Amino acid sequence: MDRMEVTETFAGMVLPGHMHTEESLCFASTFQFRDTDVLIATYPKSGTTWMQEILTLIYSKGDPEPAKTIPNWARAPWLEHTYFREVLQETGRPRLITTHLPCQVLTPALQKAKAKVIYVARNPKDVAVSFYHFHKMAKFLPDPGSFEDFLMRFLQGTVQYGSWFQHVKGWLSQRTELALFYITYEDLHKDLRHSVERLAEWLGCPLQPEEVQATLQHCSFTSMRENAMVNYTLISPEIMDHSQSRFMRKGTVGDWREHFSPLQNKLFHKIYQEEMGDSNLRFPWTTD
Ligand code: A3P
Predict the structure, then answer these.
(1) I want to staple 144 with a disulfide (CB 3.0 to 4.6 A). Which of 66, 135, 170, 205 is the partner?
(2) All domains in the chain, ordered by first residue
(3) Percentage, residues of the chain above pLDDT 70
(4) What are the residues facing 240 on neighbouring strands?
(5) Which of 40, 42, 43, 45 to mutate for ligand 1's pocket (most ligand atoms within 8 Å of CB)?
(6) Separation of 247 CA from ligand 1 center, angstroms?
(7) 216-235 pLDDT tens trace
(8) What angle do CA 40, 43, 45 make, to 5 degrees?
(9) How far is ligand 1, taken at its centre, from the CA of residue 250, in Å?
């Protein structure tokens, strides 16, 4: 099928149309959070789906039933998507909500409600690679062209969803203003157990050792890759074409090394320094 050409422009960035409309974005930006809401905020391809799964398992105390029977987009719906209003569940539990929107759109509402925010960041080089492959399979995104072309647009911040640099700097500048838990994809990768325990504690939902164990087992890459409720195989191949690239693609740290030329690496490092050099943020990656 041809790619869907429709787009929506919002807050200075271009977003895939159909799933984002003026109305859905207006609803998102005026959404009234509750104190008990938990918002997962990420730039695309940074570990969003992984965090949705981890939180599902934390709140189910390691019981895989909800994660195996309810699609992730219904368990932790995207605030800015057209279907959000319909699927937002009135459960007894905290409402899990997901967003890729930049912080300036949501901060005022989040501050007012004191909702919890979990921000997941990932090495932007791996994000660029993952996003490139995702463009190949996701027909609601434009054809990425060559990796070289895509990387240039990623560095300029002209890809859909805007600039990685602005997204990360924006959300992390709110660390003391919001109830914000900051974690990286690399932290999850390095020590999932410790990450799950820290998250559970912070959410006020501490787990027993066997509940942690069940969470780890269910949130492994292999388990999630097989789980149709998170691997997006439920979506029609006309929208997500898994023959081009799987959603659960590699799940590794440092895949950029397989894709970047020395020249691309040098340019990336230069722009990263220009964009991030004056920030005091600490990340578990270096870009040289
Ligand atoms: P790769 O394309 O590098 O494999 P998002 O959910 O934000 O779209 O991010 C998708 C990326 O997270 C993909 O990266 C996917 O494979 C990876 N991912 C999802 N679940 C994972 C898990 N349990 N362990 C490791 N990586 C995971």
Answers:
(1) 135
(2) 7-276 (3.40.50.300)
(3) 99
(4) 138
(5) 45
(6) 8
(7) 999 999 999 999 999 999 99
(8) 100
(9) 7
Which of the 8 DSSP states describes residue 14?
A: E
**Residues 44, 100 contacting (CB under 8 angstroms):** yes
User: d(Cα 102, Cα 165) in Å, to the nearest integer?
Assistant: 11
- Ligand 1 contact, 248 CB (< 6 A): yes
The CA-based dihedral angle spanning residues 162, 168, 173, 179, taken in that order and rounded to the nearest 10 degrees: 110
Ligand 1, residues 248, 259, 285: which to mutate, most atoms within 8 A of Cβ? 248
Copy the structure tokens of residue 168: 């990360």
DSSP string, 188-249: HHH-HHHHHHHHHHHTT----HHHHHHHHHHTSHHHHHH-TTTSSTTS-TTTB-TTT--SS-
186-192 average pLDDT score: 98
Q: Is the CB of 245 under 6 A from ligand 1?
A: no
Amino acid identity for residue 159 in this structure: V
Nearest of 285, 4, 274 to residue 139 by alpha carbon? 4
Q: Is the CB of 40 under 6 A from ligand 1?
A: no
Active site members: 100
